[in-house]
Amino acid sequence: MRIETRTGVWSVALLVVLAVVVLVSAGIGPVAITPSTVAKATLNGVAVPASVSFGQASVAGVTLPTPTVGYVHPFSFPVEGSHQTIVTTIRLPRILLGAVVGFALATAGVVMQGFFRNPMADPSIIGVSSGAAVGAVAFLVAPFAFPFGLGLQGAAFVGALLTAFGVYLIATEDGRTPVATLLLAGVAIQTFLGAVISFMLLHSGESLRQVTYWLMGHLDNASWGDVTVAALLVPLLFFVLLAYGRDLNVLLLGEEDAHSLGIEVERTKRVLLAVSSLVTAAAVAVSGVIGFVGLIVPHVMRLLVGPDHRILLPTSALAGAAFLVATDTLARSGTAELPVGIVTAALGAPFFLYLLRTQEVRSV
């Protein structure tokens, strides 16, 4: 079967799984809602632009035309008002944010495992998650130290990118970035940042509970603004990585062989590192540190679809989205809501150990 056909079949199947998981998840909670009602409420929330009108506004003494877009709602299914509010205002933002974060973490996990040629690699291997944690904890402990209204998510995002850039600079010499040096630099920086986080925890005072909760990874208090920003950034970066699927396949042969086959190895490595770091930073900034998604999902999908990154990237991304939505549903379904990072670790670690005992761990 051709690569395109296999990719299409697997992607459609996983999209169906994701849609079902989202519908079921949106109906689970203190107020149970049927999947059909969830679907109707979701469609009722769809708005499409129908008209554009122009008014006038004065900016610095200059009168400028200001467009106003008029929206219409093409669907008007009969749905109880409370159910409509619960689905579109409370549950869907959280569920869709979880889908985007799972999509991002699984994508970055595939790239890191291919980049390091190691199925045990995950998105945080070069310290991106630790950098985000330092930025977030610093903001929670001393928000007055952050200018320009950066905010919690902005602080986490900047911390993640600065860490990734710092690890890259440490590991790069004479324009070359050896993979082994990059890995060791990432481990060293993670250890150092862990000490920084511990120090800040000792001085967190009343914000200790909030800091600890963020570090566990969570999706509550998600807003449509969070979903919009993440959904605009992550898919764009995903398609950049997808365009490098063939290059990732060739890099598995080794850098010398890849160079002989026409791959600009160092340039490709820089792009993969930069884009995967951005993807991870975007996910961690809105959700905190959620482990195991970027490790388990790519590994399981590699067992199912094989190591070809042209198939593995889209299938892992969709599977990661479905996995995180499902685990977050479990996290909020008990008598006391848990951070989703606890659930992914509690489910992921035993399952991964089971795979290690029953399946051959394939090198990538």
TrEMBL record:
The chain crosses the membrane at residues 12-33, 95-116, 125-146, 152-170, 182-202, 222-244, 271-297, 338-356. Keywords: Cell membrane, Membrane, Transmembrane, Transmembrane helix, Transport. PANTHER family: ABC TRANSPORTER PERMEASE PROTEIN MJ0876-RELATED, FERRIC ENTEROBACTIN TRANSPORT SYSTEM PERMEASE PROTEIN. It is a multi-pass membrane protein. It is found in: Cell membrane. GO terms for molecular function: transmembrane transporter activity. This is Iron ABC transporter.
